[in-house]
C-alpha cells in the first residue's frame, strides 16, 4: 500500500540540509531521559557497575548533550562468556528501553555467576525524549552500525563494547547479543513515509504484524536459540502470525515468529558484535491485546529465555 506524500520536501528528490533542518524544527521533547532512565540507573549501582561510555554532542540541536551509560555485572570475569543486551537504539521504541532496565532490576543478578552481562539500556536518548526513530540529523542509528558511522549513537556503542569485550574472534568476545525493539503503527504513519521523503523514493507501507516476533541473522540463524525465545515469550504475549504471503514486514518466515536479515550488511545493531547467537526482538505495543507493562514483560522474557538456552548448551 502506497502512502500519501510527506509534508517535507519534493517528491522523488532527496532531502538537503534545508529539509533536514525543517524536519528537526518540528521535533519536540515529550518525555525525560533523566527522569525515566538515568534515575533508574542510579538505583542499580549497588549491584552493578554503571559506566558512562560517551556523550551525544547535541547542544546545537537540542540545547543539551546526552550522557550515555552501560551497566556491567559484577564481578566481571574474562573467562566467562559475555552477553550483550541493547535497548533504545530507536528511542521511540519504549519497551526496549524499559525492558532492558526491568531485566537489570529483576533478573540480571541471577545470571551474573554464569555470564558477564553488558547492558546498554538506551542508546538514543534524544530519540527517546522526542519519541523518534532518527538522530537530530535525520540518520537512522539502526542502519549505522558500520565503519565511519554517521550516527554518534552507533559509533560510541561500538567503540565501548569493543573496549570491554575484546575482538569478537577471541574467547573474551560476545557470545550472544539480544537487541530490544518494537514494531509500531507509527512505522507506517510516520517513519517509513519520512524515510521515503528523505531519500527521494516512493514509500510502500508494510503490514504491521499484530504480536511479538524476532529478527535473526541470515549468516548465523541460530534456529534453536530463536525458537526457545519464541516459546518463552508466547507465555507472556501473543506471537505474530504471518500475512497472506507468509511474511512478516515483507520477509518470509524462517520458523514461526522468526524472520532473518543479514544484520551486519544492513548496519543493524544486532550485527556489529560478531556474536554467535544474535536476535532482535520486536514487540507490538499498539495491539488491542497489549499493555505497556505486558510489552516490558515480553522483553524481559526474551532476554531470560535466551540466557536460559545458553546455560543449557554452553
Automatic annotation (TrEMBL):
InterPro entries: AstE_AspA_cat, Peptidase_M14. PROSITE patterns: PEPTIDASE_M14. It comes from the Bacteria. Belongs to the peptidase M14 family. Keywords: Hydrolase, Metal-binding, Zinc. The active site is at 282 (proton donor/acceptor). Pfam families: AstE_AspA_cat. Residues 29-314 form the Peptidase M14 domain. Its cofactor is Zn(2+). This is M14 family metallocarboxypeptidase. It comes from Alkalimonas collagenimarina.
Amino acid at each position: 500500500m502506497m502512502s500519501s506524500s510527506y509534508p517535507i520536501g519534493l517528491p522523488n528528490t532527496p532531502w538537503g540540509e534545508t529539509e533536514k533542518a525543517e524536519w528537526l524544527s518540528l521535533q519536540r521533547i515529550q518525555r525525560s531521559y533523566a527522569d525515566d532512565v538515568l534515575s533508574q540507573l542510579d538505583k542499580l549501582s549497588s549491584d552493578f557497575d554503571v559506566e558512562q561510555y560517551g556523550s551525544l554532542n547535541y547542544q546545537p540541536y537540542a540545547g543539551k548533550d546526552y550522557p550515555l551509560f552501560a551497566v556491567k555485572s559484577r564481578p566481571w570475569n574474562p573467562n566467562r562468556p559475555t552477553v550483550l543486551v541493547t535497548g533504545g537504539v530507536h528511542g521511540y521504541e519504549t519497551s526496549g528501553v524499559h525492558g532492558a532496565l526491568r531485566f537489570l532490576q529483576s533478573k540480571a543478578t541471577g545470571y551474573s555467576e554464569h555470564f558477564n552481562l553488558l547492558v546498554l539500556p538506551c542508546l538514543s536518548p534524544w530519540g527517546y525524549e522526542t519519541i523518534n526513530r532518527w538522530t537530530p540529523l535525520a540518520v537512522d542509528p539502526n542502519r549505522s552500525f558500520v565503519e565511519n558511522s554517521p550516527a554518534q549513537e552507533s559509533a560510541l556503542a561500538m567503540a565501548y563494547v569493543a573496549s570491554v569485550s575484546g575482538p569478537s574472534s577471541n574467547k573474551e568476545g560476545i557470545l550472544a547479543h539480544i537487541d530490544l525493539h518494537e514494531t509500531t503503527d507509527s512505522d507506517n504513519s510516520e517513519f517509513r513515509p519520512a524515510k521515503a521523503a528523505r531519500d527521494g523514493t516512493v514509500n510502500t507501507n508494510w503490514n504491521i504484524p499484530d504480536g511479538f516476533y524476532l529478527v535473526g541473522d541470515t549468516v548465523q540463524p541460530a534456529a534453536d536459540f530463536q525458537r526457545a525465545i519464541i516459546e518463552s515469550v508466547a507465555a507472556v504475549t501473543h506471537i505474530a502470525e504471518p500475512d497472506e504471503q507468509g511474511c512478516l514486514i515483507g520477509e518470509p518466515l524462517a520458523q514461526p515468529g522468526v524472520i532473518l536479515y543479514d544484520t551486519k550488511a544492513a548496519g543493524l545493531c544486532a550485527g556489529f558484535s560478531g556474536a554467535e547467537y544474535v536476535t532482535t526482538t520486536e514487540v507490538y505495543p499498539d495491539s488491542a491485546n497489549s499493555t505497556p507493562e505486558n510489552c516490558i514483560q515480553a522483553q524481559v522474557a526474551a532476554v531470560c529465555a535466551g540466557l536460559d538456552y545458553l546455560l543449557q548448551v554452553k
